[in-house]
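Recap slide: diguanylate cyclase, sequence and predicted structure.
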Amino acid sequence: MTAKVLVVDDIPANVRLLQAKLEADYYDVVTAHSGQEAIETAIIEQPDIILLDVMMPGVDGYEVTRQLKELAETRHIPIILVTALDGRDDRLSGLEAGADDFLTKPLDDVILFARLKALVRLKHLSDELRQREQSSRRMGLIDANQLHRQMTAPGNVLILDDQVRQAERLMVALGEQHRCAYETDPKAALKIALGRVDLLVLNLAARDFDPLRFVAHLRSSELTRQLPVLGLFNPDERPTLLKGLELGVSDVLPRPVDIQELLARARGQIRRKRYADFLRASLDRSLELAVTDPLTGLNNRRFMDLQLTQLMRRHLKTDDPVSLLLLDIDHFKRVNDGFGHDAGDEVLKEFARRVSQNVRAIDMPCRLGGEEFVVLMPDTPADAAQTIAERVRQAVAEAPFSLPDGRTLDVTVSVGVSSLLGLGDTLEAFIKRADEAVYEAKQSGRNRVILRAA
């Protein structure tokens, strides 16, 4: 896995040594020799990960980490703090500052590269979402206050451990800040993980089940692939640790568990997941807005054009029938002129609701524009489409529409029906036939369905 790594150390020999090791493993390496230079280089180079020495003159690694995590340009970059210090307070200081991991000198190369690959993999998964963030902000789809609330709210933590007493201790400790539950059965845990779980704490030293197989199963399922896993490992079981990181464990913590470090690592994993979830939801909203009419909630013309092209392609390949309804509300201008645009909007929304309730699940109602609507009908011959069109017409005409001021209004619709005719037919001709049928319905007195088969 190739990636760009920023190596930061005030001792040139340390930088050269790390650079040589990383480049031998095909990493692209950039370097910095001070805290301030590290910040500037990170902004310009946008590395995939930062290896940052803690003990530097001037701005130390903790402060560099805090500043990088405060900058919008760099807060997404994982940081591994590297230091000769191995005290509990030092690790906690680094994690609290925003670091993703904390490695001590002399570096264990195998552990270093395992952590690099794990963190780079996580970053690559989130990069596409992050790139969408700016466009989502421009569209007003990201509320900074809502994002802050979501990222700092208590998380849903599931503990999977075959040692009940340890699981209970973990649940009590994590329960001070989060909503927690524990399971000893991996099958039961997997069912829970399909729900709203923000973090899974897994005992990698479990003996009653295979924790590595459980991780592999999580990562093979689309529904649980993004779920963060914090693995608890025995320091003397190095192969298990390395295999866990390779399979997709997000973060690791040695046993016996330091509760404060557990809380710090859990908080970091939950915040990262909440951020990714928020961006995915924002992206979903932006995609929905791109193909949805904001007034009626129906699909818009852009969606209709895309679907028509696909339906036409499939029709020419398989000869499956495709039909279309073109609906035009009768005398709609009189509604706007006589009752006001608010009344007109209410009529359009109620009309869309009645159409949606009277077509089938496979049909695709769309608002073409103004008072014109279209229903795309895959796998539907002309006679079936005409029957459904008549049902829609009756649903519109049978009950008055309620207006915002309490008055009611009778509304009718003229409907044109057309179907694709196979080779030689075109989308333009398909739509034109429906349009001509609507015109005929209008000329014939409105409030009727006309089929234009050819």
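The chain has a mean pLDDT of 89.
The two ends are 58 Å apart (CA to CA).
(End of recap.)
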